[in-house]
Amino acid sequence: MCTVESVDKAAPLATQGLGATASAFGSYYASKAQKLALAVSADVSDINARMAETAAQQALLSGQREEQRVRLNTANVKSAQRVNLAASGVDISSGSAANVLKSTDVMGEIDALTVKDNAMRQAFGYRARGIDSTNQALMSRAQASAISPETAFATSGLNSYSRMAPAIDKYFKEVDANKNEDPIFAYGKNKNWWAK
After folding, report:
1. Which of 1, 102, 128, 137 is a plausible cystine mate for 42, CB 3.0–4.6 Å?
2. Structural domain boundaries in the chain
3. C-alpha angle 37-43-44 in degrees, rounded to nearest 5
């Protein structure tokens, strides 16, 4: 017969079962959310990589323009020097006048190469950041692909229910000992539910 005592013994098991089920669903949705967050992180890293490449190309283009400006300024300075030297009646093809013009060429070339080098270094920095972002995207995708919400659900459920097993076993042993009093057991026995 179903008694208050048997219901009192079954209620905690039912509550634990509901808790185990809720825990399993919680694990499922938590791992699903983690997988989605990693996918979004990968997409953001991809965007960052594209932005870094764009910045690298901009730095190189800006460097080329600045290099051209430096070379043009050098040519203007050299032209002004020639005009001044020639106006003074100095032979610009030899001696110290030729050295001054050569020195202007060398200094202009150094300045132009410095600008070019700086632009290349800046572009390299952006590209290194882009590679880092690409690698981060790959890592996020790899981590996301390793997450299985279904496995999390099953693992959580099995862990929870396995912790309940001793209590369930104890409950059914007590029910078995009192089987003459339990109407559900008597009904099941008549239907051969417990036939061995």
Report:
1. 137
2. 12-185
3. 90
Q: Are 29 and 117 in contact (CB under 8 A)?
A: no
Neighbours of 67 (CB within 10 A): 19
CB 171 within 8 A of CB 30: no
| pLDDT tens readout for residues 46-84 | 999 999 999 999 999 999 999 999 999 999 999 999 999
Q: Give the Cα separation of 191 and 196 in Å (integer).
A: 13
pTM, two decimal places: 0.67
How many CA atoms lie within 13 Å of 88's alpha carbon, on the beta-carbon side? 10
**How many residues belong to the chain?**
196
Cβ neighbors of 136 (< 8 A, separation 6 or more) are 41, 42, 45
Asked if residues 183 and 2 have their Cβ atoms less than 8 Å apart, the reply is yes
Distance of alpha carbon 104 from alpha carbon 109, whole angstroms: 8
Structure letter (DSSP) for residue 193: T
DSSP annotation of 174 reads H
